[in-house]
Amino acid sequence: MGFNTIRGIQINVNHCKAAHSGVFQVARDLELDFIAIQDPYLFNGEPPKSNFGCKTFSSRDKRAITYILNKNLNVFYKFNTTHTVAVELHFNNMLFNIFNCYFPPHDNIEDLIGELRDFNFYNSSNLLVGDFNCQSRSWGYDSDNFRGRKLTEFIAASNLHICNITEYGPTFQSTTNVGFPDLTLLSLPVKGAFKTLKKKPKKFAKKFSFWNEDLRISRNKVNRLFKTYIKHKAEGSILEIIQSSGNAYRKERAIYENLLLSTKRKAWESFCLNHNERFGFLFNLVFNRGSSENFIGVNPNNDPNNTIEDKINYLMDNFFPSPSSEDNLDYTPIIGHVEPMVLEIIEIVINALIG
Fold this sequence. Notes:
Layout: E1 8-12, H1 17-30, E2 34-38, E3 55-58, E4 64-68, E5 74-80, E6 84-91, E7 94-102, H2 109-114, E8 125-131, H3 146-157, E9 161-162, E10 172-173, E11 178-179, E12 182-187, H4 190-198, H5 213-234, H6 239-274, H7 281-286, H8 308-319, H9 343-354
Parallel strand pairs: 1-2, 7-8
Antiparallel strand pairs: 2-4, 3-4, 5-6, 6-7, 8-12, 9-12, 10-11
């Protein structure tokens, strides 16, 4: 049986039994295909089940639960981690992965994101939903925090796109706080996108690219060191081994991030320096190569004989005027009374700094 769309809902029920049960009722009324719940209500360590049947998948800590309600969908368990569960849907002759995540607000964000680093979001269609507890302007907050910056870097490096519409309002609201911790992220296979680009005319082909073999080698090395670090922590290795593997991972990750930034910058600089659009609009305007009459809507002194050069100079002088004598402002500070320095006060300040 084929489907044209998949419909679902994502919600953090904050351990509330009524909210958790209410989601089932809403899903049934709207005939949804799946539910992704974070921070669910648990009874004896297990989430409740719907009374109309479904398949249930959960993260290891049971704080991210995915219900597949549509019995006609072919769904397969893909993997789970401490804070994430992933399922694979066979949908409309394609594979579609759904990731459900709950990132606790006080856990290490780099370790949380690390649970997803081994998955290649470039080669498949993926929906990543969850309560990430990260703050960034990219999805509605007024400022960024460290967690938000790290998650933004991961999103940019993983072929993920933010689907949130901030105009619809916050995703979390209480009597004391308002925020946008819940995200919906989507990725499509890059291979298919490249095929689409090749079908377009040459002038629309993608020209800017930065990925290279050195980046791939460095990224793979970071992934290997991260797996080693997580393995030592999971096995309860001695503290020195855990610290050593963690330091090696963080050092190599810093090298990779610096290499990524410098490579992107060099690639962009090269692209800009080598970009040569001959006979573009400005070229045709200045050298009168255009096929139609060019018109600039200014006319200094209402002179009908003004050239395009005269008009451009007039515009430039108005927007970027030459310095005048009025611009040379000399500032002479007025120094008021200054209290003399007292030795006792200096000693107190120095002792406080030393302490």
